[in-house]
Each structure stands twice: as C-alpha cells, then as structure tokens.
Design a protein that fits this description.
The protein has 571 residues and is an alpha/beta fold. Helices cover 38% and strands 15% of the residues.
C-alpha cells in the first residue's frame, strides 16, 4: 500500500472526498468485501472505488477484497475520525418494519428477470420499504391514491403492505412485471391495480387524473426522465396539491448529465421541493455508485400546459440500452421529430422495417390494399392513403370503418402490438415489425393470425355461435370502451331477466379487476383469462332468479320509451 497515493486521491477529490472516505471506512473493518457491495454501501461510482483499490492494493480472494491489519491501520490514520454523513430521514422507522423488509427480499428475488433494454435495475428491499416509509412520514396517506409509473422495483407492494389504506395503481410496459405484481397482490390481499401502458403512447385512461401522489424510477436519460415524470404528473388528480417522487442518479463524474435531466424537469415547470441524496440503493448501476437521489417534485399551474406541449415530443428513444436507446439515434437526428414524421413518432433508428419501405408493391402484389396506415411510414408508401399515429389509434376508435389496415411497429414497441390489433376493427390487418413478433395467444378468439418472419397477418374471425363466445366477441369488438360497461350490457342482452345493476355486480364477482379499465390497458394475463371470466359471469347469471312480473314495470317502460317509438306504436 502507498499511503501517499491514497492521500493524493482523497486530496484530488476535494470536498467530494466523503464518498471515498466512506468506502475506505468500510474496508477498515477487516471483512471481505465485493466491489459491488463497496459501491452500493458507499454510493461511490465503480471507477472511483476501483481507483481507491488500486492505490491500496488489498488482499484478494476471487471477487472479494480485504485489507491487512497494517493497511487498515494506515487507512484509519487517513480518515482522521471524520464526522458522520447526513442522517437518513427514515432510518429510525426501519427497524419496526423488519418483517416487511424480509418479505420484500423474497418478492424481489422471485420477480421476473431484469430486461436490459428497459433499463431495469432492481432496488434493494430496504430501499423500497424506505420509500414507503418516507411517503407516510411526509404525506397524509389514509385514503390516498398512489400511481407507480413503472414498477420493476415492486414499490407498489411495499407501500400497500405498510399503508393498507392507500389505493395503488401500477402502470408498466412489461407484462411479466404486471402479472407478478397482480399475483402477489392477490395472494397478500393488497389493494394494487395493474395497468399496461407504454408511456411513449400515452398514460392509460384509468390512470389519468386520479392519483394524489406518483412515484417513478425511470430510464436515466433526459428523455426518459422527462417522459416518465410528465406521465406521472398527468396521473395527478389535483396538480396543485399532488407530488411526483422521482428516483434519479448520476455519477459524480458526470454533472452535465444531471444538469440535462434537471433542465428537462425545469421545462415541465416543476418545483424541486426536496431532494434526498443517495436515498435509493440498487443491485447494479455501479457506474452511478449503485445509488440515486430521491426528488420530491411539485407541479405548478404551468405544468399541465408544459406537458401538453412536450410529452408527445420525447419520441421513442428514451433508454440507455437496446434498440430504443438514445445512443441508437443517428448522429444529428432530433429526438421526437423529423423531416418525414410528426412529433412523437418513432425516430429514424426505430422506424419501419425494410418491407414497407419497398413501396406499395408488397400490398398490391398480394391483393392487400390498406385503407389506413398506422405508425411511421415513409412518404412514398401509398401517399394518398390516410395515416394515423400509434397513440391516436390507441386513444380513440378510428372515425371510418376500414376493411384493411396496415401497421408498422418499430423496435422496442412490440408489446403494443396486441393492443394495436385490439384497437382495430378492420376485417384484415397486416403488421410489419422490426423485431420478433410478441405472443398473440390472447387474441385467438378475435383473429386468425399468421406470422411470416417479421410480418403478421390478422384476419377477423366470423362471429362465434356459442353464447359465451358471442359475449366475449362483443367485448373484444369494443376495446376502447370501459370493459365493465361493455360486459354488463352484453350480459343483460344474454340474460334478459337481469337488471343492469345485477349484471354489473356479476361482472364484479367474475372479474373484480375489470373496474374502470378499458380492454387496451389490461395486462396480457388478464386478456388471456378474459374468456374464462366471461363464461363464469354467465354461470353466475343463471343463478339469479327471475323477478316476478310486475305490471308497473310496463308502465315505467312506456314512460321511458323514446317519443319516436311511442309515436310509431300508436300508428
């Protein structure tokens, strides 16, 4: 060990040397440490810890490091008995929730594997529990509604366990995460609702304007942070009273990146009400010290106009890895807009697959002439055919009734394909993907699907003859409507003796998750189980006895009958 080298490293760090001193103090306990543990516990970047270890030259066993007694003594002399770091705002509350920490540890271990393309990095069990504790310490939570904008960390489950009076809604693009959260919430009897949503295409309808608080741990790019925070603010019922909690971290070596992120928050007219340094710790993300700050952001009266002006302009390249990473954009390509596309459409790096770019031939040669093009298409492809953006297609039914529709899906948006097909009422849909086709088994009652390479043909099936099939088909044909309402109306038609109130109660019994959702925001596992739930609702309807005939009902019906119908009856 070279004490002068360690002293020089601490001196060069200046006032930011506390991070190195924290790592040095950990090493001085004489225990074996992995590099990952040193990074996470000290919140120092991997490069910083590696520089410190190079100067010390500790003992090594595989991936573990330890100081000799002599090295530890020399390092203690350099520490100079420095003052302790800032107090954790909820450390005093954590011991009372040790059981929840243990349970979250098991839940995180059993969760679906992280997806690098979605910038997944798991937070520690202590971190998600401390998030829940901070929410309770800073805000009044009984009866409150929390929106988790992305939740690979399972913060929703920790909050619901510690604060059972909070109604939690999770919006995520990863169907595996939604299924896992749904399953665990059901087994633990927690009030957590799972919604599918790709934030680049908008916030799910049932999540808009309903929350008191929102929390997000987004991709750590300016575009990713801006988009996730904008959608979180859109989810607030009262922007002047609500708050958005943001986990974001940057290496001590990259302050300009943090500045760009904070500029994106400033552009949304958000007030930085508080910031807790290094509050979040992770298994991974060693480039930023496996740590991130926790921001408490307060919207202003100018936040919603700013979101309306910017949210659709973030584009699709928001991640740090994979086909939708910021780095995947060609040099000089603006984010969110381009010469041949509208703001918010996929950028050049994630544009349409090669097949559609060959002109109209692939359609006309096979007798397929689309009446609408959905997605980002080159201008020279069927220039006279109407076009629609993905977000518009999902947001509302198309005004006309085209028989054939062509859709292009860029890399990174494959999870939206089942929803794009559900949102389409055409007889035939041809889709071109830039990557492998996702699972479409949930759509088997609606379409006959043929996958050829990266092209997907979906042909609408004839109306089914069985009762359950007809009811299910009626629901699938109205994907933009509220699921419970469409289901209720179909059930009353199938069972004429049911009142609308009775039918609604039966839907709630068969599918308590139907609530206020539309079909387009249901997680995949709910879409797959929809047929079984519909059949169950019919069986429940058969158990409801017919009400005795009351002549007064005829009088009431006549009073409420439309005037035109009464006139026709008199004639």
């Amino acid at each position: 060990m070279e004490p002068d080298g360690v002293a020089r490293l601490l001196a060069e760090a200046g006032v930011d040397a506390r991070r190195f001193r924290a790592a040095l103090a950990l090493l001085c306990d004489g225990a074996w440490w992995t590099l990952a543990d040193l990074v996470r516990e000290s919140a120092t970047s991997r490069r910083g810890v590696e520089a410190l270890l190079r100067e010390i030259g500790p003992q090594r066993s595989g991936e573990r490091f330890r100081l000799t007694p002599a090295q530890a003594g020399a390092c203690r002399a350099l520490l100079q008995d420095g003052s302790p770091g800032p107090a954790d705002p909820v450390a005093h509350l954590l011991p009372a929730h040790a059981e929840v920490v243990e349970r979250m540890e098991r839940l995180i271990e059993g969760a679906p594997r992280a997806r690098q393309a979605l910038d997944h990095v798991a937070a520690t069990p202590e971190t998600v529990v401390r998030r829940a504790l901070l929410l309770g310490a800073r805000f009044w939570l009984p009866g409150a509604r929390l929106l988790c904008v992305g939740d690979h960390d399972l913060t929703s489950l920790a909050v619901a366990m510690i604060h059972p009076g909070v109604q939690v809604t999770v919006v995520d693009v990863d169907d595996r995460i939604l299924a896992y959260i749904d399953d665990q919430a059901r087994s633990l009897d927690l009030d957590v609702r799972a919604r599918w949503g790709d934030l680049r295409l908008g916030l799910p309808p049932s999540a808009r304007g309903q929350a008191d608080l929102a929390i997000t741990d987004p991709p750590y790019t300016p575009e990713g942070v801006g988009l996730f925070v904008a959608r979180a603010a859109e989810g607030l019922a009262d922007p002047e009273r609500g708050r958005v909690l943001l986990a974001y971290g940057a290496s001590e070596r990259t302050p300009m990146l943090a500045l760009k992120v904070q500029s994106a928050l400033h552009d949304l007219n958000l007030v930085l009400e508080a910031m807790y340094p290094d509050f979040n710790r992770y298994f991974g993300a060693e480039a930023i010290g496996s740590a991130a700050d926790l921001y408490v952001l307060r919207p202003t009266t100018k936040t919603r106009p700013a979101i309306a002006a910017r949210a659709d302009g973030y584009g699709t390249a928001i991640y740090t890895h994979g086909p939708q990473s910021v780095e995947s954009r060609p040099a000089g390509s603006p984010q969110g807009a381009g010469p041949d596309r509208s703001p918010g459409a996929p950028g050049p790096a994630s544009g349409p697959p090669a097949a559609p770019e060959q002109g109209s031939g692939p359609f006309l040669e096979e007798g397929f002439a689309p009446e609408v093009l959905v997605g980002d298409w080159p201008k020279d492809v069927l220039p006279r055919v109407p076009r629609a953006r993905h977000s518009t297609w999902l947001a509302k039914p198309y005004a006309a009734s085209p028989a054939r529709v062509a859709i292009t899906v860029p890399a990174g948006l494959e999870a939206a394909l089942p929803r794009l097909l559900l949102a389409t009422r055409a007889r035939q849909v041809r889709t071109f993907l830039a990557g492998p086709a996702p699972g479409l088994r949930a759509l088997s009652p609606l379409y006959e699907i043929t996958v050829t390479g990266q092209a997907v043909d979906a042909v609408r099936l004839p109306a089914p003859q069985d009762e359950a099939g007809r009811l299910l088909r009626g629901i699938l044909d109205n994907a933009h409507g509220k699921l419970a309402n469409t289901w209720r109306e179909g059930l009353t038609r199938a069972r004429g003796h049911l009142t609308r109130k009775q039918a609604r109660a039966l839907v709630s019994r068969a599918a308590p998750w139907a609530g206020e959702v539309t079909l387009l925001e249901l997680p995949e596992h709910r879409l797959r189980g929809l047929g079984e739930a519909v059949a169950a609702s019919l069986r429940l309807a058969d158990e409801v006895p017919e009400a005795p005939h009351d002549p007064a009902d005829e009088v009431t019906a006549a009073v409420h009958q439309p005037a035109a119908a009464r006139e026709g009856h008199r004639r």
